[in-house]
User: What shape does this take?
Amino acid sequence: MKIKVQVIVESDDGTGEVVQEIAQLERGQLRPEELGLTLAEAKGLLEGLQRTVVEQQIAEYSKQQSSCPLCGNYRLHKGAHDIVYRTVFGKLELSRPRLFHCLCQSQPTRSFSPLAELLVQRTSPDLLYLEAKFASLVSYGLCLKLFEEVLPIGAEINASTIRNHTLAVAEKLESELGDEQVFFIDGCQRDWEELPLPEMRLTVGIDGGYVDSCEQKGKKDGRFEVIIGKSMTAEGESKCFGLVNSYDTKPKRRVFEVLKSQGMQMNQQITFLSDGSDTVRELQLYLNPQAEHLLDWFHVSMRLTVMNQMAKGLGPEESESRVSALKQLESLKWYLWHGNVYKALQKIEDLETDLEGEVITGESSEKLQTTLQEFQTYIENNQQWIPNYGELWRVGERISTAFVESAVDQVLSKRFVKKQQMSWSRRGAHLLQQVRTRVLNEELRDKFGEWYPGFNAKSEDQARAA
Assistant: This one.
């Protein structure tokens, strides 16, 4: 059995039609692998159909451009060259006529190429979208293998091309970000009172992680910090963001725009939870007048747990030094849980005195003393952000950034650390995060719809047709 696949092209006025054969299929006795179209046949059909459609579109466009739109005079041809245009369904070599400008008005050049001016980017929006989306989810190499398996264009691109296109999309996203500001609080109390009632409280958790660097010049440059955040509404809807603080020049603007996309108003209550590091401390300030800043209890508790384990190495189980240190650490934790920073700092000084004196001695004592001094500095730097955790916990408020751990895993670990054992440049990691977070927030398709007005329209029409 032979099956011919043809395309019929009709003119707009219905005066003529063109029939073109794009494929011929052969079938013998029915077998499971030959029922319907094979993947290879589908690729060939799509590529052939794409070429036919493009040829007709280019012919129609060239016909429209052959005359001056102002006076209607015929434009003289200077010559023609080919340009390469990559689509999801294959690489196309398009003839690019070059025309002389009409003399009815002055122009900066004598000639121009209408097609080259129309197709400034040599890659279709659909292909750019697919490259950016899947490259943000898996490695560039795996993304290439996926395209080779399912798309006709597979052999026409490589991993470097996918990487360059993905970072170009990220650069375009970055170019649309507003200017950085120290203060984002706008208006005064009277203005805020006139605003409509806001939604429920927003909760923002900010944490960080580290990525191996490919730009290291010494041991200290082996890794760089990546800040990851997650913003949640009272209904549980969330958005994530990420940035490389040592590269990003607009970190506060980035966080502000994420909150703004969730409907943040100047009269809306927001709770920021963070680990209290220097970079994060500056990042979350002056974004909203109603903002409440809390030191994450998880990081406080984790440090206390480490010191508790150190204290267990001070001597035998029943020794006075060990029992005394563990008891004081338990009291320290109790004071911090109830937000009594003054008593907590006193307890730290008491324990330091014991560690410096004759009551507790040895190597374990020195380690605990060093860790305790670091903890004291940590609490002093963040004491204004230490609330009564117990009271907040009893009324159901969040006191930990545990909910951010899923965002750190999604944004950072699965693509940059755990699954992909490779090193990164600060620029590459930062830009890829901007695409990845848009994909995880389900915003990338809408952004392409803004850039290319017909992008989402075609998808919606296809969905309705299906």
Summary: The first helix runs from residue 39 to 65. The radius of gyration is 31 Å. DSSP finds 17 helices and ten strands in the chain. The chain has four domains: 2-118, 125-176+446-465, 189-296+401-424, 299-384.
